[in-house]
Amino acid sequence: MTSPVGYELVTALREFVERIEAVAPVPDGPAVASVSVSIDGGEASLSLSGSVAVSLIMALREYHDPRDNGRCEHCGGRRLDSNLMCADCQRPNGVFGQLIMERAARHAAPDPDTDLVKDLTAAPERPAG
Ligand SMILES: [Zn+2]
Prior knowledge:
alpha+beta; binds zinc ion
């Protein structure tokens, strides 16, 4: 697996470990875990002390992807775009989405009480000839 992102991941992990170890209590204790990343047939492995492991857990759990706009109320899908349109069920999400759907339905079906509809439906057929 060759990917510049793989090398960037290893660099970011090393920098993270260094940042946490710089402020960790001394002694920080033995390694409690190791993380290995395979890149280009090789492998980079980092040992994590307890405080580094706890900090990594917190960082991962607190991460919020900027593309994550929550769950769709209709299908439970997680692929809502920035306009809250669901890529799974193709419906707009939430109260705002419900308003859009209601407006769209009104535009799709003409109101039978409008003068134009009354005129068209009430017009008598003209005799041929
Ligand atoms: Zn949906």
